[in-house]
Amino acid sequence: RVPWAGRSASLSLPLLGPQPSISNSEGDLLFLLDSSGSVSYYEFSRVKEFMWDLVHPFTFGPKDVQTSIIHISTTPTMEFPFDRYLSSGTLQQAIRDTQQLMGDTNTGKALSYAKEKLFSDEAGARPDVPKVLVWVTDGFSTDDISEPMQLLKDMGVTVFIVSTGRGNYLELSAAASQPPEKHLHFVDVDDLPIITKELRDAILANRLHAVDITSSSFRLTWPKLLSQETGYYTLEYAPIDDLARKRTKQVSGAHTSLLLSNLAPETTYEVALIPESNVHYFPPQTTRVTTLAGKMCTIFPYSGTQLAALSLKRWSGPPKTGDQSAPHSFHVSWAPTLDSVISYQILYGPLPGNSVKLLEVDGKSNSTVVENLAPNTTYLVTVTAVYKSGKEKSLSAKACTQEDQAGWQPLLKIPSGGTRS
Fold it and tell me: Per the database record, which ranges form the Fibronectin type-III domain (predicted)?
């Protein structure tokens, strides 16, 4: 063990605390590791820690992430195939056991070797999953990298470069996938933890994933693979328990996102993105997305005996004359009705916000319709019983309108409420 810069070179991978796992991420991730004699033992050990820190939140398996390491040396060497270590524990030990080979920094040779292995059944690679290459370098190579790197990118491989040394910016920015500000990092070897999360997020962003998930919609985003001139994307999606209900959309190659709406709540959808290119082959990308539960009523505790139940139902009643569609509405009902109540006041407004409207009905009523509400919005609804004595008893609940509604949809019956005097 050789000390470097006054530091002890006796290092081991840190035992990290519980971390949130990242699932629904399918892909082959290849580390191109500078194992040559230009890298000190200390630097090599720090890079191994960084590699594990980068991948440990992922879920590993034949339907998730698989990873491998290729050494840059005089002759490129694969440390282990993609499909050998499919659990966090075994992969962590394999990275820990990886030994530096020394030798020359023949990065071009290693890239040509990586091109073979990234698409090789023998190396455990899969044919139709996203391919990501992370090249960790001290910035020096003894052979040309431009041609083999371009071939990798032409085959759909996303290339990230982490330079811990004095690499040529113009050369490395041309080698990395575009744009370089998202795919190229210059950082001291001791500061690698600073970029770990940013790099992991960038790797995840370079595949199909969902954002802005609600109970009835989500937005799909994906990396820019095509252009208006080079092709188009086909998107297929269906509930995983009813794949026969598959729906298909097509968008031009200029798109990198699409909003899917009118979805069922609490439902897992299988989604596939198929790039249809007239220049290069790009493998399909798949993911699974689960919509949120519908926003239901939330009660405010109440211990009284009057106005003991409030029920909200979504209702898009019959269109009014001249309307093309029914307004978003709630049907509000309450119980019991009492002779001592002279009127009921219904106060409602969107959350968050201070815009409040008031309805008032006579004491013999036990329901009303709150109309002309905004779609996909949470409302606070408060029903107040006004008694002949002047006292008031209130009951409140939250409920949410949806993007598209038709007919009665029971939300929730609430057994208690709040008191106001």
Answer: 204-295, 315-404
Other Cβ atoms within 10 Å of 371 Cβ, number: 16
Where residue 91 falls (left for φ over 0; alpha for ψ -120 to 50; beta otherwise) is alpha
What is the end-to-end Cα distance of the chain in Å, rounded? Answer: 77
> What separation in angstroms does the CA of 52 have from each of 105, 124, 133, 198?
23, 20, 15, 15
Closest CA to 148 of 219, 209, 72: 72
As a dihedral over the C-alpha atoms of residue 249, residue 250, residue 256, residue 260, rounded to 10 degrees, the angle is -10
At 113 the pLDDT is 95
Q: Report the percentage of the chain scoring pLDDT > 70.
A: 80
pLDDT, tens digit, 9 for 90 and up, residues 62-76:
888 899 999 999 999
Element (H, E) at 79: strand 77-80
Distance (Å, rounded) from C-alpha 147 to C-alpha 55?
A: 28
Structure tokens at 357: 């409207």
Side chain identity at residue 262, one-letter code: N
Buried b (16+ CB within 10 A) or exposed e, 219-257: bbbbbebbeeeebbbebbbbbeeeeeeeeeeebebebee
CA atoms within 13 Å, Cβ hemisphere of 198:
15
What sign does the dihedral 138-139-144-146 (CA atoms) show?
positive
- Condensed to tens digits (0 to 9), the pLDDT of residues 195-253 reads 888 888 887 776 788 888 888 889 998 877 888 898 999 999 999 999 999 999 999 99
Q: How far apart are CA 116 and CA 284, in angstroms?
A: 20
pLDDT of res. 3? 25
What separation in angstroms does the CA of 13 have from each of 34, 98, 101, 254, 364? 18, 11, 19, 43, 73
Q: What is the pLDDT of residue 210?
A: 84
**Torsion 19-20-26-32 (CA) sign:** negative
Whether residue 298 is predicted with pLDDT greater than 60 in this model: the reply is no
Angle between helices 41-55 and 88-97 (to 10 degrees): 170
Determine the residue type at 355: S
**pLDDT over threshold 80, residue 131:** yes
**Residue 338 near residue 327 (C-beta atoms within 8 A):** no
> Per residue in 251-270, pLDDT tens?
999 998 999 988 888 899 99
* Helix extents (H) in 118-191: 146-154, 169-175, 180-183
